[in-house]
Amino acid sequence: MSRHSVAERASRCAFFGAAALLFTASAAATIVWSAAMSSMGRMPMPGGWTMSLTWTRMCGQTWLDLAASFLGMWVAMMVAMMLPSLAPMLWRYRESLGGAGATRLSRLTALVGLAYFLVWSAFGLIAFALGVALAALEMQWPTLSRTVPFAVAGVVLGAGALQFTAWKARHLACCRKVSGCSLTLPASVSTAWRYGLRLGLNCGCCCAGLTAILLVMGVMDLRAMAAVTVAVTAERLAPAGQRVAQAIGAIVVGSGLLLFAQAAGLG
Q1: CA angle, residues 185, 187, 193, in degrees to nearest 5
Q2: Average model confidence (pLDDT) for the chain?
Q3: How far apart are CA 22 and CA 79, in angstroms?
Q4: Structurally, how many domains does the chain consist of?
């Protein structure tokens, strides 16, 4: 084995080893946060459902404290959920830079990842604002609260239907980095930053339906997080990604119909 091959193998092991450590740390933090939220219980609401306390302030807690806590939880969760499918793409990006030195390769790759998760952080702030606003309305209007089980079923049905659209297929193609995607590989700090931002935007669009499911089913529900992580990873990395996405869509539509039947008292 040549010296170059040995160095490349060592670099690959170091990269994926670091990714595995980051995934483990973020997954552990997510589990701890989920356990903490579970110990606090949930709020019974008109309509026979319970609301997570994620969207409500505790005694002595400011809105800024709540937002910071949610954002920290959200980032840890997204790193754990997205890293399995993001890491191979980051490695391909790293390889595309070719002759750059090892230190420069690491910095540019880390910058792409940082920009990517910055986009997800922005999505998290939007989700937090919407969640807080909806929670306040649901507590003030019992009639609105009673429609929530049907709304949840509708969101899940819509997310499943979205898996079959051309819009989903286009963004999934970019996430899988196939021909027809307009992303270009960067070779400098500024283009690496823009590349990471664009990756994050494409990923957020691609995962919009699955992320919506996570939000309405329970943002700190470990089972929902695990299911979404498996779905995102499978449609990104499986050989027939679009078929996998459609199979996931069929399962999600079926789940939505079941939720609707339960909300209507038929299940």
Answers
A1: 75
A2: 86
A3: 8
A4: 1
